[in-house]
Amino acid sequence: MKGNGGPVAKVAFLGLLTNVMLGLMKGLAGWTLNSAVLVADASHSITDTLGDILTLFCLCKAQKRPSPEYPFGYGKLEAVGTVVISIMYLLSSVGIGLHSCSQLLVFLPESLLYYVQLWIAALSSMLAVHDDHGHSHSHYHHESLVDPKALVFVFIGIVVKEALFRYTRKVARTSRSSVLEASAYHHHIEGMSAIASFIAIAGSWYGLTLLDPLGGLVLALINGREALSLLVSSLQQLCDHSVSLDTLRAIEAAMDEAETSTNLQQKHPLFTWDEVKAVNSGPSIIAYVRLRFERDVLLADALATEQFVRKSVQSAYPAVRIPD
């Protein structure tokens, strides 16, 4: 992550600061306007700072140089952080979905109601999801005739979270930071959840109670899918899953260019290469390449060629690191 550490850490800190500011703003507005939705969202924004702190810790740790204890660097800590954050967001999405289903029960025929209630109660007890728990995004609680000024603060939260999501995702993909991308999608989850809060408050004025749980269920499915995708990719990285075929082809193209350059310059002994293997390690890619020389090549010349190849590949593909 060399060269990207500053911007990446700044974005993570911006997310932390935004959650604190939104939490204070919504908390004060909720208390003033008598809005349980805003108070619940404020509590959730404050507790989300734990995820932001974890993101900052993983980002800072992953930037450390390799050491004798960790010769390949600390990049895998990003994957560990992403796994933890993805599980948090996945459980949060499940909680939202279960709560939305429980709100939809009143619209079911009585013949099905009893069995569905048993199923949801069993799942809720397994996941420790409670209707009055703030981290289940309790904006789904019904509240009647809330001051319409509360919609202004919810709308501000939607705009801020969506803007932060787009900016954070852009930096995460540029810097190849999985934990920052997980944080970005959490901002997106919060923005979508704020839309459900908006519907809950507005619907209380028009009696459209069905829209709130339906919207919550759709959002839970969308957000849960994103969280599950991040979780799977992070677990694959921890298990040293190979990079994508396109990335592997790009590394091979860089190796071909280095071989051609060596043949033209004639400063280093000729070589061939094979068996390119590459895995993700946080923002970096660790590649293993076998070079083959003629029998009469001196060890010092072979090592010098190896260094030349390493620099050539990293020049063409900066994210790649070829261990000594």
Automatic annotation (TrEMBL):
Localization of this protein: Membrane
Keyword Transmembrane helix: yes
The entry's keywords: Membrane, Transmembrane, Transmembrane helix, Transport
GO molecular function, one term: monoatomic cation transmembrane transporter activity
Lineage top rank: taxon: Eukaryota
Positions of the Cation efflux protein transmembrane domain: 13-239
Membrane topology: Multi-pass membrane protein
Any GO CC annotation of this UniProt entry: membrane
Gene Ontology terms: biological process: inorganic ion homeostasis; intracellular monoatomic cation homeostasis
Pfam families: Cation_efflux
Coiled coil ranges: none
Membrane-crossing segments per the record: 12-33, 79-100, 112-130, 150-168, 189-208
InterPro entries: Cation_efflux, Cation_efflux_TM, Cation_efflux_TMD_sf, CDF_Transporter
Major subcellular location class: membrane
Signal peptide: none
NCBIfam families associated with the record: CDF
Protein name, entry field: Cation efflux protein transmembrane domain-containing protein
Top-level taxonomy: Eukaryota, Fungi, Dikarya, Basidiomycota, Ustilaginomycotina
